[in-house]
Amino acid sequence: MAEARFARFRRLRRTPGIRALVREVRLTPDRLVQPLFLRPGRRVREPIPSLPGQEWVSPDELVKDAERLAGLGVGGVLLFGLPEGKDAEGSSAWREDGVVQTGIRALRGAGTPLVVLADVCLCGYTDHGHCGVLKNGRVDNDETLPLLARMAVSLAEAGADVVAPSAMMDGQVAALRQALDEAGGGDTAIMGYAAKYASAFYGPFREAADSAPQEGDRRTYQMDPGQGRQALAEIAADLAEGADIVMVKPALAYLDVIRAARERFDAPLAAYSVSGEYAMTMAAAERGWLDARAAATETLTAIVRAGADLVITYFAREAAGWMR
Predict the structure, then answer these.
(1) Would you kindly state where each structural domain of the chain is located, as residue ranges?
(2) How confident is the model over 180-221, as pLDDT tens digits?
(3) What is the CATH number of domain 26-216+226-322?
(4) Is 64 one of the annotated active-site residues of the chain?
(5) Mean of the pLDDT values across residues 160-185?
(6) DSSP E strands: which ranges in the chain?
(7) Model pTM?
(8) Is 135 assigned a catalytic role?
(9) What is the Cα–Cα distance from 3 to 178, expressed in whole angstroms?
C-alpha cells in the first residue's frame, strides 16, 4: 500500500529569501499616499495629539515634508486644510489664498515630484461642521454640489493633480467633472470617495481637521456599515460620472468591500486606512501590546491583498522607510 502523501507548504517558507522570492503581494512606497494637515502661518509644526507622529504644518513646512517623502519614494500626498475662518457655506474652501491652495503652489514652486491629491469637502470649512450646506437643519445635497465644484476648480488651478470629493453628496463627481472641464481643468483627475462609510474610526481625523459636526451626525449621507452591495452601486455611479479612481473608506473593517470592488471593476482602486486604524495601532504599541511596524506592515499587506491599487495611510512615511 502506497504511503499517504501530503503537501509540503513549509518548503517555501524555510528562509527569508525563499519567502520573499515567492511572495504574492509586495508593498512598495510608490503605492502609498501620506495624508497631511495644513494650517496658516510660517514655521508651524505642531503635533496632533490623537495621531502620534503626525503634525499640523504650514505651507513652508509642507514643502520640507514632501521632499522627505519623495526621497523615500512615497507616491503622493493627500492634503487637508484648517482655514483661518469658517462660515455657513465654507467659503474659505475655494479662496485663491486658502491654506491648501497656498500649500499646493508651494509644492509646485519647489518642483516636488510627488502626486498632489487634494480633498474636496466643506466639513473643515463650515461653522457647523457638516459636509454641505444646511437647510432646515439638514444637508442640502443639490445646493452643496456647486460649492464642491468651486472648491475643486480652485485646487486644480493651484496645481493639484487629483481632486478627491469626500462629501458623499449624490452627483458630486459629475458636478466636479463638468466644472473642471469648463474651467480648462480637463487633465485634473478625480478620485471619488465612492464607498465612504459612516464609521466610528474617524474620530482622530475630526480633531486633526477640526471637522466634527456641531449637531447631529453624517449618517444621512455617508454609507451605513451594514451595506455591502450598495457600495458597488456607489462605485459604479462614480465611474459613470467620470471618476478616474474610486475609493473604499475605511479600509481594514471593509476588506470584503475592497475585494468585491476589485472583482467587479477594472478602474484604479484606492483604500483609505483611516485615522482610527492608525491611532489604535499606535496606542497599543505605546503600551507594549504589539509591534507597530509588524502590525502596520501586516495591515497594509492585507489591504493590498484584498485588491487596493493604492493605499492612503498615516504610516506611509514610516512604511516607506521600512521598505528601503
Answers:
(1) 26-216+226-322
(2) 999 999 999 999 999 999 999 998 887 877 777 877 688 889
(3) 3.20.20.70
(4) no
(5) 97
(6) 32-38, 45-47, 55-57, 76-81, 115-120, 134-135, 138-139, 162-165, 189-196, 245-249, 269-273, 310-313
(7) 0.95
(8) no
(9) 69
